[in-house]
Amino acid sequence: MPELPEVETVRRGLAPAMEGARIASLELRRGDLRFPFPANLAEHAIGRTILGLSRRAKYLLIDFDDGMTMIAHLGMSGSFRVEEGAEEATPGAFHHARSKDGKHDHVIFHLDGGKGRLRVIYNDPRRFGFMDIARRAELASHPSFRDLGPEPTGNELSAAYLAERFDGKAQPLKSALLDQKNIAGLGNIYVCEALWRAHLSPLRAAGTLVTKAGKPKPALDILVDCIRDVIADAIKAGGSSLRDHIQTDGSLGYFQHSFSVYDREGAACPTPGCGGTVARVVQAGRSSFYCAACQK
Q1: Which CATH class is domain 4-141?
Q2: What is the model's pTM?
Q3: Catalytic residue among 127, 136, 280, 286
Q4: Is 34 one of the catalytic residues?
Q5: CATH number assigned to the domain with residue range 159-291, chosen from the 4 options 3.30.1330.60, 1.10.8.50, 2.30.30.210, 3.40.50.720
Q6: What is the spatial distance between Cα 23 and Cα 64, in angstroms, rounded to a whole number?
Q7: Is 83 designated active site?
Q8: Active site residue 286
């Protein structure tokens, strides 16, 4: 599933084409994705100008000029691409094959912008993505957002905040980090990478990073810095190119090639002087990759 850096990459890729453009029409080629489309979604979008694109956790937010916001989630296999000119003219060099089958093009934005008529196409073979619409002023109470914790890139995330959330918790550290009520947008890949950078085991209890007085231990300060750094590095690299994820110009991200432990079971740990080997364990149905020699 695309994680926060991938969604941020999509946002940045779509912004030049969509921001300031007028929606000439919104073509819905089926009645649903993971959930049914909201009633009259296409009719409501026609004629609206897109003021801006933003992101909350793993959700893409498209702001209209009437105070409404379209919410898009990519699910497992969703991707956007931008086309102009001839129908088959999709720019970009492809690192891995991805879906170009028209039967999976489920939503098409027909836009009038500074570059003329553009098409922004949402393709989703598995149809686990979804789209919704809500008032921008009411997004905080929307079911998708009301229980989310702070962004991993924002100032609200701190060791003191996590100490409050982790205090007394026997829950494994990795599970606590994946809990969207604690931190919004963190996924399996980048949690594994952040824990390796912080030299913390995914198996240790989250509460062990908190003192008896409820204060963060130094390791929790280090972990927060590592979370920020790994997300920033992934965004800078354009997101990871796992499975169906693509950048909006058709090219794929390359951050997967710099993973230190994720999906590297049996490889030597990259920590200088460690000498350990990357292992894989299953936690709550998800694979965790870590080095038992240097992650404690």
Answers
A1: alpha beta
A2: 0.88
A3: 286
A4: no
A5: 1.10.8.50
A6: 10
A7: no
A8: yes
